[in-house]
Write a structure and sequence with these properties.
The complex is a heterodimer of chains A (about 110) and B (about 110).
Chain A (H helix, E strand, L loop, with lengths): L3 E3 L4 E4 L4 E7 L6 E7 L6 E7 L2 E5 L2 E6 L4 E6 L8 E8 L10 E2 L3 E6 L1
Parallel strand pairs in A: 2-11
Antiparallel strand pairs in A: 1-3, 3-8, 4-5, 4-9, 6-7, 7-8, 9-10, 9-11
Chain B lengths: L3 E4 L2 E4 L5 E7 L5 E8 L3 E10 L2 E4 L6 E3 L9 E3 L8 E8 L6 E3 L3 E5 L1
Parallel strand pairs in B: 2-11
Antiparallel strand pairs in B: 1-3, 3-8, 4-5, 4-9, 5-6, 7-8, 9-10, 9-11
The chains are: A mainly beta (about 110), B mainly beta (about 110).
């Protein structure tokens, strides 16, 4: 079993829809949780970075972490065609810049249609 | 603008040859990382370095080597010992904080 599980999709939604992307994990030591967006043939770009459980909102994006269920989510409101990309969840025991390894999900491919 | 520059964008290598991928950052980040991305497998850590002149193996270091002689630079050499080198290689950097990791735009290596 992988440490981080993520549905690969593809997930296709109409423009303006609310998108829910999810990851589950098995390692209870994970404390730092991230969501990255990756366009085709590009490097991932950080969307959200949260510590421990709770919610974090940034514009149309909301990240939720439920450590009791080992479940994290990214919600995208009013989805746009420019949101079409692969979304990667990632998590670690320690903060960025330490020896703590970042473990990634396999990514969910999202397609927002007109 | 601050960022991470990876070069070249595309690289072709013959079997049995070593090849070096470049990664340069001007973000003044202490830590740098190399990941490999394969379809359906997510990103896997090859090597990482927290300070100059020091680096550690990641999960899949066999067949790879790195150096960290300068804070800004963390080149990755893919040696002939790497049995399946065709992949998308990503370099990243970070500070010890909650600003996460910054990735370069990647190098796609193809063995021909």
């Amino acid at each position: 079993q992988k440490e981080v599980e993520q549905d690969p999709g593809p997930l296709s939604v109409p423009e303006g829809a609310i998108v829910s992307l999810n990851c589950t994990y098995s390692n209870s030591a994970f404390q730092y949780f991230m969501w990255y967006r990756q366009y085709s043939r590009k490097g991932p770009e950080l969307l959200m970075y949260t510590y421990s459980s709770g919610n974090k909102e940034d514009g149309r994006f909301t990240a939720q972490v439920d450590k009791s269920s080992k479940y994290i989510s990214l919600f995208i409101r009013d989805s746009q065609p420019s949101d079409s990309a692969t979304y990667l969840c990632a998590m670690s025991r320690g903060p960025a810049g330490t020896a703590s390894k970042l473990t990634f999900g396999t990514g969910t491919r999202l397609q927002v249609t007109l | 603008d601050g960022g991470i520059t990876q070069s070249p964008k595309y690289l072709f290598r013959k079997e049995g040859q070593n090849v070096t991928l470049s990664c340069e950052q001007n973000l003044n980040h202490d830590a740098m990382y190399w990941y490999r991305q394969d379809p359906g497998q997510g990103l896997r850590l090859i090597y990482y370095s927290q300070i100059v002149n020091d680096f550690q193996k990641g999960d899949i270091a066999e067949g790879y080597s790195v150096s960290r002689e300068k804070k800004e630079s963390f080149p990755l050499t893919v040696t002939s010992a790497q049995k399946n080198p065709t992949a998308f290689y990503l370099c990243a950097s970070s500070m010890r904080d909650l600003n996460g990791y910054t990735f370069g735009s990647g190098t796609r290596l193809t063995v021909v």
